[in-house]
Design a protein that fits this description.
By secondary structure, this protein is of the alpha/beta class. The chain has one domain (14-102, 127-225): CoaB-like (Rossmann fold). The protein contains 5 helices and 14 strands. The strands form 4 sheets. Strands 5-4-1-6-9-10-12-13 form an 8-stranded mixed sheet, with helices on both faces. A hairpin with a 4-residue loop joins strand 12 and strand 13 (198-200). It is globular and about 70 Å long. The two termini are 32 Å apart. The structure holds cytidine-5'-triphosphate and calcium ion (CA). Cytidine-5'-triphosphate binds next to helix 3 and strand 9. Cytidine-5'-triphosphate binds at residues 78, 97, 99, 101, 103, 128-132, 146-149, 161.
Length: 226
């Protein structure tokens, strides 16, 4: 008979998804962050859950409700996200790094509200850890999926990230394109795989994009079993 059930391709697999932005504190009232809303990452976590996976969702600060039936680990900074992901890495079969991790953080975080002064000022920054890069270095048999949010030269930058981070797939989107990027319910992405294959997806809902990405990941998992 006819059924609408999603295929359960991820039974017995542990999938770690990171989502949302990170926040890098300047002082108790200010931070550095970005426009990520977490929608794409949450959609991926839900789809992985539907397909039977044990899902760990490592989430930066977002407005979205925590999806039922998954382990949600709330983090704020890139450093906290790094620690949370590393904790689950050895037991993970798949890691999907959807999060928009801040690349820089203030060198000093003040424990009091910084008062303004006459004239200009600047904040000294230092680099955060590149979580995906670290995961790529330590990769054993995990399928590692990164994202690339670009505003130009999407293909070139995505391919560079694929190699530099030792990922199995990079999901690239041009965040300037209409219907793609931050906060929208739709996205337009291109999947770049380590094998060299490139898959251009048309404009579709983020839940539909999530289905396609999880579909590709199940292929990658099967390839590894062979
Ligand atoms: N990423 C990460 N840790 C960081 C920065 C990025 O894990 N400190 C991950 C993101 O989660 C994403 C991928 O790396 O999966 C690409 O992120 P992106 O910001 O597009 O690329 P960067 O390598 O940070 O380079 P740039 O921002 O200069 O384009
Ligand atoms: Ca970045």
């Amino acid at each position: 008979f006819f059924t609408n059930q999603a295929p359960k391709n991820l039974i017995g697999k542990t999938v770690v998804v990171t989502a949302g932005p990170t926040r890098e504190k300047i002082d108790p009232v200010r931070f550095i962050s970005n426009h990520s809303t977490g929608k794409m990452g949450y959609a991926l976590a839900e789809e992985a859950k539907k397909q039977g996976a044990h899902v760990v969702l490592v989430s930066g600060p977002v407005e979205l409700p925590a999806p039922a039936g998954l382990d949600v680990v709330k983090v704020e900074s890139a450093e906290e996200m790094y620690n949370a992901v590393l904790k689950y890495y050895d037991s993970a079969d798949v890691v999907i790094k959807t999060a928009a991790v801040a690349d820089y953080r203030p060198k000093i975080t003040y424990d009091h509200k910084v008062k303004k002064q006459a004239g200009d000022s600047s904040i000294e920054l230092e680099r955060t850890k590149d979580i995906l890069l670290e995961l790529g270095k330590r990769k054993r048999n995990q399928v590692l999926v990164g994202f690339a949010a670009e505003t130009e030269n999407v293909e070139e930058y995505a391919k560079k990230k694929l190699t530099a981070k030792n990922a199995d797939m990079i999901v690239a989107n041009n965040v300037k394109a209409e219907g793609a990027g931050f906060g929208t319910d739709t996205n337009i992405v291109t999947l770049f795989k380590r094998s060299g294959s490139v898959l251009d997806l048309p404009l579709m809902s983020k839940s539909e994009v999530a289905k396609r990405i999880i579909g590709e990941i199940t292929f990658l998992l099967k390839d590894m079993d062979e």
